Amino acid sequence: MYNASATVGPNIDRRQDGDSPYSNYQRSKDVKNPRFAQACLFLAVVVLVRAQRRRKGNLPPGPEPWPLIGNIFDLTSKELWVRASDWASEWGDVVYLHVFGQGLLFLNSYEAATDLFERKGALYSDKPQLVMCNELCGCENITAFTGYSDKFRRQRRLMTKVLGPSAIPSYYPLLELETQVLLRRILETPEGYSAHIRRYAGSLTLRIVYGYRVTANDDFYLKLAEECGDILSNGIAGGGFIWLVDVFPFLKYLPTWFPGAGFKRKASKWKAKIEEFVNKPFDMVVARMKDGTATHCSVTTLIETSEDDNMTDAETDTDARWTSMSMYLGSLDTTITAVLSFLQNMMFHPEVAAKAQKEINSIVGPGRLPTFADRLDLPYIEAVFNEILRWSTPVPLGLPHRLMEDDMYRGMYIPRGTLVFGNNWHMSRNPALFPDPDAFKPERYLDKVDDATAIKMDPRTFVFGFGRRGCPGSNLVESSLWIVVASFLATFDIKKATDENGQIIEPAIVYDDAVFRKPNDFPCSIQPRSASAAALVEQVSALASVRCLRRRLPRPLDHRRVEPD
Ligand code: HEM
User: Fold this and answer.
1) How far, in whole angstroms, is CA 430 from its chain's centroid?
2) Name one Pfam family in it (predicted).
3) Whose CA is nearest to atom 43 of ligand 1?
4) Is residue 113 part of a domain?
5) How many angstroms separate the CA atoms of 207 and 295, rounded?
């Protein structure tokens, strides 16, 4: 489709230069009647685009594109997953669009996503090398944007060391401790619940990745991470990652002062922030390692256990820096989204919260908080946990993969370079698997189903993405989110807030983020279930503070190398 515009372009130029064989009559007619020229241009593009489609075979179905600009008007910067789901209902589980010739493919079923991302993983695991995101904003070393290369494999191996399934149990004490600190903050100032959750999410990963303890809501590293998360999801990725400069790369040579080069000014500001985010916390750990005060953490593990003798110190350092930052970045908005969605659903479904609390009362009792050792004995909490993952789908369209070679799938042609999205939002709303899919019903996970259906219903098979680029943090979430859910339900009632007249405020839930299905703050009342629950929170968090000061993060149990593919 790029070719189409390239073919039409020179004809226009020649006509303007005045050296074409066009007669004066023809030229003056065009000038007088620009609509005629536009119509010719339009028809030429339609013919070329159609011819190209025919030549290449059948592209997957999708909304009809405009000539040249494609489906640009079909895209939205907010809740694109809802629109993508509408396309899925109309066009099926493989939907194709293009924007200025850049193909976008939406895989709307578990079958299509696993066929392409998993069975054809060698073709579908690359990342778009976007001019704005990677070149101008300097994101090419962030794991989620790194191409399918040795650098990607090295980064994923490093992540497996610190986030692999066998490493997680060593974080249990820390996960329990950070959860207790979160409960105490909520007890003290429940109206600030959203800030507390943000602090919890940042603090947990800062502890795990950098061994750094957050001491205030406006902590420098927390704010830096939030700022960069916002820059990435609502700045750089705001329009589905595609900027005009990605379509016309020569625009990157415009001087920054040039009218229309605002994107370059933004890019240099964003790049500086991202570099600060990569370097400042990492340099802090390196300085602490030098003076012997570093707490054991992912960064120290990555530096101490570096294994590749073929790499220079500088390369090892770059890998460790960007891998650490990628984990921190990847964990923040996702965790916040999942915890906020949990609160939101408990607020709207007091009957679910009551049933969960009854189970906790009977198994754990009132005198202590649930621990990981209780997990197998709490099937209803497990069902609530599964339903939170399914219902919230924190990253509804995943992150785009790039197809490395032309491919055929079910007789449809998918061009090389197409950006491919796993629409896990649509999968989570599949009525065949999840009747009444928008309803929050943990009971659906208690019904007896055959093994194949159980696998398809398991939200872990779709909410964390697919194949070789699937989320490396899923093992951590499996534990960190579970302990938050169980501890919250054990100690707090989550209800709709009331106004000064005691009238219930019906909260409107708004999703504003372009990448994460993160609800904006909503009014909500969070009160301890009883005086003894409040006392329990105070007691465990007082102990937690003492342990916080003393404790060193235990070493992950397993440093074996595990290849991502
Ligand atoms: C509820 C929590 C989370 C959800 C739902 C989630 C979901 C996802 C999804 C859908 C992807 C894209 C996968 C794909 O491209 O197919 C992803 C990628 C990623 N996630 Fe998570 N995530 C969560 C938490 C975390 C945590 C806690 C970490 C780190 C500690 C993390 C680190 C990453 C990284 C580094 C990537 C990029 C992987 C790559 O491109 O190779 N995520 N995540």
Assistant:
1) 21
2) p450
3) 471
4) no
5) 9
Distance of alpha carbon 342 from alpha carbon 345, whole angstroms: 5
Angstrom distance (rounded) from CA 183 to CA 487: 8
CA of 471 to the centre of ligand 1 (A): 4
Count of domains observed in the chain: 1
At position 181, the amino acid (one-letter code) is: V
- Per the CB < 8 A criterion, the answer to whether 269 and 300 are in contact is no
User: Could you give the count of Cα atoms lying within 13 Å of 343 in the half-sphere of its Cβ?
Assistant: 30
d(CA 125, CA 114): 12
In a domain, 411, yes or no: no
Nearest-atom index, ligand 1, CA of 152: 41
For the chain, what percentages of helix, strand and coil (3-state, to nearest 5) are there? Answer: 60, 5, 35
Return the bridge partners of 493, or none: 527
Residue whose Cα lies nearest atom 27 of ligand 1: it is: 331
Question: Distance (Å, rounded) from C-alpha 206 to C-alpha 199?
Answer: 10
For 144, the domain range is 127-396+438-550
| Residue 143: closest CA among 162, 127, 131 | 127
* Cβ < 6 A, ligand 1 pocket: 143-144, 163, 205, 326-327, 330-331, 334-335, 338, 394-395, 398-399, 401, 422, 463-466, 469-473, 476-477
Q: Where are the beta strands (DSSP E) in 100-188?
A: 102-107
| pLDDT tens, residue order, the chain (565 aa) | 223 222 222 222 322 333 333 333 343 444 445 555 555 555 555 555 555 554 456 999 999 999 989 998 998 888 999 999 999 999 999 999 998 888 999 999 999 999 999 999 999 999 988 899 999 999 999 999 999 999 999 999 989 988 999 999 999 999 999 999 999 999 999 999 999 999 999 889 889 999 888 878 788 988 888 888 888 877 887 666 678 888 888 999 999 898 888 999 999 999 999 999 999 999 999 999 998 888 888 888 888 876 666 677 777 888 889 999 999 889 989 999 999 999 999 999 999 999 999 999 999 998 999 999 999 999 999 999 999 999 999 999 999 999 999 999 999 999 999 999 999 999 999 999 999 999 999 999 999 999 999 999 999 999 999 999 999 999 999 999 999 999 999 999 999 999 999 999 999 999 988 889 999 999 999 999 999 999 999 998 877 766 655 554 444 333 333 333 3
Q: Ligand 1, closest atom to CA 208?
A: 30
Please give the number of the atom of ligand 1 that sits closest to the Cα of 468. 41
Give a yes or no: residue 19 inside a domain.
no
The residue contributing the CA closest to ligand 1 atom 16 is 465
Residue nearest to atom 3 of ligand 1 (CA): 334
Atom of ligand 1 lying closest to residue 476 CA: 27
Do 508 and 522 touch, CB atoms closer than 8 A? yes
Does residue 377 sit in helix, strand or coil?
A: helix
The CATH number given to whatever domain includes residue 164 is 1.10.630.10
User: Does the residue 462 lie in any domain?
Assistant: yes
Q: Whose CA is nearest to atom 14 of ligand 1?
A: 465
- Determine if residue 471 is labeled as part of a ligand binding site: yes
